Amino acid sequence: MQRRHKEEVRGNETEVEGVHQGDKEMGGMEALGEEEMAFGLIPILFPLSSLGQPPVELIRHREARWLEMTSHWEKAMARRYKKVKVLCRKGIPSSMRARCWPLLCGGQSSMDRNLGKYKELEQSPGDPQWLETIEKDIHRQFPFHEMFLSPEGHGQRGLMQLLKAYTVYRPHEGYCQAQGPVAAVLLMHMPAEQAFWCLVQISERYLPGYYSPEMEAVLLDGEVFVALLRRVCPKAYKHLQKHSVGPLLYVTEWFLCLYSRTLPFPTVLRIWDTFLSEGVKVLFRVGLVLVRLALGSSENLRDCTGVVETLEKLRSIPARLLQEDTFMAEVHNVAVSDRDVERECRTQLAKLRKVRPDFGYHPEQRLPNAKAVFDAQQLEDAQQPRKGRHPAPAFLIPEIVVDPPPPPPKEQRRKKPDTRGKTFHVAQRPMLSLAQEGREGEEPGPAKRNSAPYLETYF
């Protein structure tokens, strides 16, 4: 069996085109070990590694925390997103990824809003042109994973149906070869319907324009990557510029396949945990770390005398440097934020449009992280009720009608008499005030406002 698999690999290497090249037939499994065996990968060609697993108590503790958080997901995303991000950086337990990934990327919400849609797409005949292309690529996706060993197995058949459904769902995009390994990783962790909606979310929310025929988003992000590399690792930047090694020669496969064909599988899963939480900036950070590990020192640059040697150096980073805990610690320490990526996108987009006025990609379509995806879906749900959801019967939620209290009576104000054109006559009858009692010989004073004669005015 080992010999047969070796021959299959040699034969497949001559058939790979586009982003599927050379030894990448094994989906980035140069460092297969015990952890890879736990994920369903069969160690045939490579020695076992001695990478350790976290203690069982720690795994159980993290599982309990994720169970509690996913049980109150809307509350967690609305109020405790920073905590979700921290837990994703520590790594989602393998037993929880099938539950957490669809929640993080919004695939679960999309599936709930489109009940029965995937079955309808799956039963559609599809475009024969895309079906032929997909069928040629199916056997190249993780050939040493137990799900994809047999052409008649549920793994290859499920992957075929999933990719066909996407071409029916988005006929203007069709099928991109790089979607194969992404969909395969999703199928390893969840049923086909969930995997389909996760693929839709990744293609439309996280990486819009990546899998379109023009691939303009990849072209833009390649220029953004070079600009970030110039700031983070100037030595590697100068070397790549000196030998005219463009970013599309190495970044294309990294970004399109989400590193699933480049790095050891446990490290790939940790990258996905963080990518689905924090968005595209994680892809830039991972790429910057890889370039720094390969070309960041003078010793590594001695053997890189041209384009071929430089690309080979980028492909042959020692496996000990790619161990998930050590590698991800370096990734999180890279000083690249969402704001840095957005600012550089605007700068490079302006430069590209000077050369290509018809450049149609708009980076504003891309959402930066899981919180933005969650907020966008909440807004969509508020504006449009979910399909298939019916209002609850009236007897379940009784309506209580309370009559409003009557308005208070208006205050009856005394109407002033109309005195326009009237003549007032004052009675000439002298009256004595209390102070004037006993003063019978004195003349009364003039009438005042509060005096008795004034009050006895008549008309």
TrEMBL record:
Residue ranges of domain Rab-GAP TBC in the record: 91-279
Coiled coil, from the record: none
Record GO terms (molecular function): GTPase activator activity; small GTPase binding
InterPro entries tied to this protein: Rab-GAP-TBC_dom, Rab-GAP_TBC_sf, Rab_GAP_TBC_domain
Gene Ontology CC: one annotated term: plasma membrane
Keyword rRNA processing: no
Residue numbers spanned by region Disordered: 1-20, 397-459
Keywords: GTPase activation
SMART domains: TBC
Start-end of Basic and acidic residues biased regions: 437-446
Protein name as catalogued: TBC1 domain family member 10C
The organism of origin for this protein: Chelonoidis abingdonii (Abingdon island giant tortoise)
